[in-house]
Amino acid sequence: MSTDNTAVFVIAEQMVGGIQPISLQLLGKARLLADELGTTVGAVLLGQNLTNDVHKLIAAGADLVLQADSESLVPYQSELYTEIIVKLMVEHRPEILLIGSTFIGRELAPLIAARLETGLTAHCIELVIGGEGALEQRIPAYGGMITIVCPEKRPQMATVANGVFPTPVLNPARLGEVISIQVPKNLPQRVQTLEIIREKLEGISLETASVVVAGGAGAGDQEGWDQIEELAGILNAGFGSTRPAVDAGWTELETMIGQSGRMVNPDVYIGVGLSGELQHMVGILGAKIMIAINKDAKASVFEKVDYGVVEDCRVFVPALVERLKNKESTTGKVTHVI
Amino acid sequence: MVNIVVCVKAVPDPSFSDKLKIDPVTKSLPRLDIPLVINPLDSRALEAALQIKNKYGAHITILSMGPPPAGNIVRECLALGADKGILLTDPAFAGADAFATAYTLAKAIEKNGAVDVVFCGMASSDGATEWVGPEIATFLNMPVITMVREIVDDQGDEWIVKADYEHGYRMVKLKLPAVITVTRDLNHPKPLSFSGIIKARSKEISEWDHEKLEIPVERVGLKGSPTKVTEMTRLENRRNVKMIEGSLQEKVERLVQILSNAGVV
Fold it and tell me: Which ranges of chain B would DSSP assign to H, the alpha helix?
């Protein structure tokens, strides 16, 4: 089997611990798009000791895996990766190329797009085949949704964050072709990743938390922020943020929920002191019960949740925390439910 | 002397973002006179350049593409300590996506002459793509490191930087000339000073259009953009909110009850 010039391609990424869910999610989506277009799915995987990961890519929907297995590809090197992928794309000429919005994906995608002289849409939350087979790429902006297309240039390229699309059920019986690529030698190495350092993870994973508390600009200052964090701690909740809270320096960019950040899927979401910007709210569309606390009764967040409390979070959150602490002490046990 | 170009974008003041919403009837953005400010991440890019200038001496060129009022943002950067400004302004530049923007900026950097480092913010607060920096690097055939949070070693022409990575960071060595896109963790921009504002008055801002850049009009603006916006839709409310009323304590009780029913407490 070989891909024709209309294939849907995915750049898979081997991170510490193997293939990450984002690569499988992209393959699941690519499979659906390819079936609708009547074409095949290709995947590119660069790294080391790839055999298991290649099988996973096929099980997730790839018909063809182009793999380069070499110690020179670990850790990630932007120039080498760009050269290999650009060459493969020129050779295979896919219609669509999907890349995860990981830190590496967000650096590689524009390097590839500029070399291929094609368009690239950032952090899509919907990908739909529209008229004449064009890929309609949707992003949230300005309180609504913007549709972007790339009418003439190919491939049509988009990045997508982890959790936007579901992780497909792996089918180990699926068959696919694997082609090994030679790694080019003697490339200029003007940029060299010396090492990738992983810092210790703290707190509860946002993606798997059954309760998520997110804080926004309404926290006012670090003290207000710490109060919201205390609430998250008492509820055994994942603690996320909005861009203004990150901008204010109260928390790390990695805690940001939304289009260009984390996608969460909790049973209960509590948004505290945040306005309800769509770029944030699209990160929590899957929540079962949504609650917002904001002192501004007109905040647009109240249009997007199930329960609203109009109060200054700097007053309300300490009162709620106090009440929850008392509940624990009177019943004599901590009633966390996972 | 290090030659530095800082790319800055004049963006609508983010504190007015509540006003800038898609009109549900016209399905387009309303024309509003929202004041322009420097893209917050680009002020970090400028601060990084100013720190290099303080340490080793440097000549800093501010490069911005936008309508004539964006010149005020360039002037502000000169007041903060940059040496020279270039405003790329031309009706033909309107509607540029990241690709056409990066191409135009790259042509201007080439025309401006020798460059050792190009600093950009890692994203803009309005467009929210992160592509302009790395695409400029591609057009200039320079290496790039995106999302730099710390410059560990900036001596000579081989630098070592830390760049963001999932749950950690990348330690990267790069050879100048290069493009670096910066995160908000890199530094804290300093405020304007009165003496800076006075000094900026005598600094030069050039205005260049596509003819001055000697690039065909098909390569810039909407025409030079591979991507097009085809539709804008207002999102309808997805949920019917129940507002919790009463005194502070009543609201707290009611919320605890909701959390309890949901099995959270």
Answer: 40-56, 71-79, 98-112, 132-139, 194-200, 248-261
